[in-house]
Amino acid sequence: MENIKDIVKKFDFCGECTEYKAMGSGNINSTYLVTCREGEKINQYVLQRVNTGVFKNIEGLMDNIFSVTSYLLKEIKKTGGDENRETLRFVKTHDGKKYYKNEDGLCYRAYIFVSDSISYNSVDSAELFKQSGIAFGKFQRYLADFPAETLYETLPNFHNTKLRYKCEFLPAVKNNISGRAELCRNEIDFVTARENYCPRLVDLIESGVLPLRVTHNDTKLNNVMFDKNSGKAICVIDLDTVMPGLALYDFGDSIRFGANKTAEDDGDLSKVGINLNYFKAYAEGFLSQAGESFNNAEKENLAFSALLMTFECGMRFLTDYLNGDTYFRTEYPEHNLVRAKNQFALVADMEKHMGEMESIIAELTK
Ligand code: GN1
Ligand code: MG
Question: CA 159 to CA 314: how far, in whole Å?
Answer without folding.
Answer: 13
